[in-house]
Amino acid sequence: MTSITLRGGDRVLTVAWADGTSADFPFLWLRDNCPSGFHPQTHEREFDLTSIPETLGILSAELDGEAIRIEWDGEEHQSRFDADWLKAHRPGVGLNDPANIPPTLWRGDFQPAGLPRISAADLMNDDKALLGFLIETKKTGLAIVDGMADDREAGMAAAKRIGFLRETNFGVTFEVRSMPNPNNLAYTSHALPLHTDLANQELPPGFQFLHCLANDAEGGGSTFCDGFAIAEDLRLNDPEAFELLSKTPVPFRFHDDNYDIRRHQTVIDLDAFGKLQELHFNAHLAGVFDLPADTMEAYYRAYRKIMQMTRSSDYVITTRLEGGEMVIFDNRRVLHGRAAFDPNTGYRHLRGCYVDRGEFDSRIRVLSR
Amino acid sequence: MTSITLRGGDRVLTVAWADGTSADFPFLWLRDNCPSGFHPQTHEREFDLTSIPETLGILSAELDGEAIRIEWDGEEHQSRFDADWLKAHRPGVGLNDPANIPPTLWRGDFQPAGLPRISAADLMNDDKALLGFLIETKKTGLAIVDGMADDREAGMAAAKRIGFLRETNFGVTFEVRSMPNPNNLAYTSHALPLHTDLANQELPPGFQFLHCLANDAEGGGSTFCDGFAIAEDLRLNDPEAFELLSKTPVPFRFHDDNYDIRRHQTVIDLDAFGKLQELHFNAHLAGVFDLPADTMEAYYRAYRKIMQMTRSSDYVITTRLEGGEMVIFDNRRVLHGRAAFDPNTGYRHLRGCYVDRGEFDSRIRVLSR
User: Fold this and answer.
1) Which residues of B touch A303 (CB under 8 A)?
2) What is d(CA A263, CA B270) in angstroms, rounded to the nearest whole number?
3) Boundaries of each Gamma-butyrobetaine hydroxylase-like N-terminal domain copy (chains A, B) (predicted)?
């Protein structure tokens, strides 16, 4: 600790640690993050940033055991920072985040046998096994739970072990089976081409849980593809299509007797740094495109291109859920679909619910403590 | 109807109506939206866009009473479009949306007496009154319900009349009162400077409902400001600050024993067209800024600027909720706060919940049918 050196600069305090790490801490940043400004129980910031002048200076900064003590110029206040805390929070680096797990992209040659897998018993009772499973599930975006009880509530209980459920206009849970008077194609026996759910929502649900209670009908196999792999390949091989799909919002809409939920979304959604954030791909819920007529043909070319990729064996994997299995997937990354089934040959019933990405990541962080 | 004229162009069909409206319909758009491709009950698109060639042509297009009949070249198929439907959905225009209501900005001279107001009885029982109230509430982003029953469930019931409730890590509902061992500053008697709730969430909740069950303590007045007015004034008067606040994601974080929910957000969030979409402003939940040190001072200047605006009488209005009143506001537009109160002088208890923007808009559309 004694090998830390401090140096005042142009409104920054430079701290150099013994291991060679060095960082600049702007005065305002230091004052804003003074430990005395946070509520001891809620950890929330109570300090009022407008209470100090923009020109706040430092009278003195010195080492004090494991800490750095600052006396402010322009305000009657002293701050005391733990040197390790400063190192972990140095500007330009960002706090370490156990849930920051980059996706491992997969394509059509990926074997379903290689999917992350956990038993329902371990998921419910073993924190360490659950953490490992959640981390692997974030990597692939797709995973299986087996040994589920033949109980309509079992899928919900497993999902709630990760986070509270995200309600939608279809309810807190939903039943995927052939029904009379369906308000959604999932509730028919028709084939469902690969899609993301509820692209018509402002924020479509994150992780989807589909507990297979019965799959005895002929047909009804499950298909998946990694939408991020498709998008990255498109970015590389057809940048014009990628550009159109990531910059052009198109309408999505669901409407029935009780709801009319609409939203313009880009098919490919990037974050502020150009990194893939989520996909919105759902031909059933795609509205009537409202682009100007003269850009429509170029857009359709790009849209058909990504659609064809979602039908290609280069990307699609096929599996068949058995009763007692539950599939978990990131609905904003991994597209899901199913083959048509014949409801006269047997019963097929999946029960689903959603846990959003925020709660999923939160569980990883809390289990990582 | 006989005055409609059709003209084939470069892969577009031009339709001209008697009133002078004229529009180009690209061939692929027409085929993609052929009414035969939609499920009759779910209204969802079943047509497979990859089943036709990109070069699909038109053999003939002709008027047929109120409709336009197209015979396709390259596929054995006829389409029949209602001429009015085509006009309503013409490219570049977009479907009419009753929920597309531009905000009416307000500032510190806005009188709380001018807020949209409805009685709980009308909200619960009168569809027409509710629709008018929802439209006005979208304009101002802030409104009052009065005559609420002195019943802990009354606020929830009113909110559910609009849409299902958005659950968060604080529950489906939350109690705003002074509590021992708080995990949130709202649950103390401290002053709360103006903020938006849960800026640490991927999508912070939309409309907030706060039912005032008791407000008998000294202090505890409510403050509000229109964040969109502040942002638009900043865009005009300090474009550099606006640019930094709308382009620079900063971390927000809530953590307690059960959750650790983090998200980088820009303080000002714009849609693809540069229009204000939402604000994320919450100094309590703002994390430790992780920008590079050399951009930190410029960012702090911008951040302090908007913070000072949220404290200025140019923008802030003050009111005092009475028992039996409920305030509704768009949490991603209107910032809310309160004065400190003295819990020894009387009881203060608000009960809150959220309905997201998507469901709020959906209710406007359904009631507008």
Assistant:
1) 49
2) 15
3) 5-86
